[in-house]
């Protein structure tokens, strides 16, 4: 096929519409290129529940086998289950998923052995170059000894491994509603929660890559509506929502109110620091709440602030030897999980924390939810650089604020801060603001928006 790889090879993964932008023939070339770039004797491949995933995954496996690489196919899995397989088997891996994107999309998330990420600077650019070359010149010659394809099973071991990282031995019985959004959480949750004193109320556990009930993107409040109603209706202790490939987890308290991912980051950070003797580095991106570094310091740890994006988090995790990292988008990274992200492990921490005491979740997380945040507000602008410069000009001479350029522009004062950063793919500026109280936050938010929108 003819294909414009610039449209589907992103910074961290491959993603596009099937079959318009890519198909099984192209997936086979990606498999061959992945084999060449990783130079591995064997790889592991898995896929989500999208209708196109089994065919794309098998084509990729055949492409790698054409280059003499043995392929372990683990079939249906979540993204963090694929990372587990890559870590436990010490093999490079490829996961076929488009996460929370609509049904017509699919993609590939790739990693090296031990779940080390493959992105533009760590192999993805070379993979793209090889595929483009073969599209122009013809597929490479098969290896003298083609690789083998074999089936692997990792679900039970994945669940057992996650449970081994959290002390769940003393938790009280809990009732938990889980909205899997017809994604891979419906496949993994029963295995991960096996043997725990939980009454599980499943919502949309049927694997269906057409997403008949709602998009599998809990970051959009519209997709939490059903869960927020169901938790109090069931008299449940909490609710959990997973995205399509089940690597992100969102939490709802007993009243049906969402718990901010920053509060979850702080809660898990405190627990991971306790597990590590009150010492360790915790990574957080610059638009998580100020509560996160405060809690980390209070529990003896060292907070490290990074740019937004999993490649930056994972790089800092490796550089600093951090024990944990969290993002505002509900990605949670663990040293004991090969520095990879797993919302399921974060969910187990929440269950352990809640089940280890008698109060409700709303009271438990209140200590970690100290400020008022705006959430992310997007503004379409004609000139990102000019509008960002206008924001800088408005604040740079004020004695009561500091400015930094780690990721866009952050303006910070004693009791508030905001960050404005440009989208890499759209003509947008993204604003996040936080303050000690709602009135201050609203004032700062509206001031910044007035400048951004001119």
TrEMBL record:
Q: Which residues form the Alpha-D-phosphohexomutase alpha/beta/alpha domain?
A: 7-132, 157-256, 266-371
Cofactor(s) demanded: Mg(2+)
Q: Where is the Alpha-D-phosphohexomutase C-terminal domain?
A: 376-448
Q: Which CDD domains match?
A: PMM_PGM
Q: Name one Pfam family in it.
A: PGM_PMM_II
Alphabetical keyword list: Isomerase, Magnesium, Metal-binding, Phosphoprotein
For this chain, the family text in UniProt reads: Belongs to the phosphohexose mutase family.
Name of the protein in its database record? Phosphomannomutase/phosphoglucomutase
Protein source organism: Streptomyces nogalater
